[in-house]
Amino acid sequence: MSQATPRRRGRPPLIAVPEGTGRIIKKYGNRRLYDTRESRYVNQETLLDLFAQEEEVRVLDASSGEDLTERVLAQAILGEETRGSRPLLPRAVLRALARFRGRERGALERHLTQAVAAFTAGRSRRLTPLRRVAP
Fold it and tell me: What is the DSSP letter of 9?
């Protein structure tokens, strides 16, 4: 007989929270998100604010420990898009995501990642004030 952690009635099994991996958010079966650092539930808007910060954020399934970060982040971004007046992702980008699959999707992913990195680097340069060198 194995020494598995006994399941608590009505609750998912306890999973170990990895140390030193940034902020961990647990996602429960009822779609609730729990911030383990702050010991409180968060909504999708708060989750997006956490992702926007420099600290690494990971979303883990509360019962299995599976990493759900990309899936939950995509859902939160697309959910926010329905509330805004201007869409974040233009129709052409959404169609490209639907159209390109398999190996082509990998190429599209690399291209989008490079484009975002270039945009971020350009934005950082514009926001950094120029320093004058003393004569």
Answer: T
User: What is the crossing angle of helices 103-127 and 91-99, to 10°?
Assistant: 150
Q: Which segments of the chain have a pLDDT < 50?
A: 1-2
Q: State pLDDT tens for residues 119-133.
A: 888 877 766 655 555
* Structural domain boundaries, residue 70: 16-87
Q: What DSSP string runs through 74-124?
A: HHHHHHHHTTSSS-SS-HHHHHHHHH--THHHHHHHHHHHHHHHHHHHHHH
> Which contiguous run of DSSP H or E holds residue 40?
strand 40-42
- 60, 68 in Cβ contact below 8 A? yes
The average confidence (pLDDT) of the chain is: 79
* pTM of the complete model: 0.66
Q: Write out the two tokens for 11.
A: 């609750």
| Beta carbons of 83 and 112 less than 8 angstroms apart | no
In a domain, 53, yes or no: yes
Whether 23 and 78 map to the same domain: the answer is: yes
Does residue 75 sit in the same domain as residue 100? Answer: no
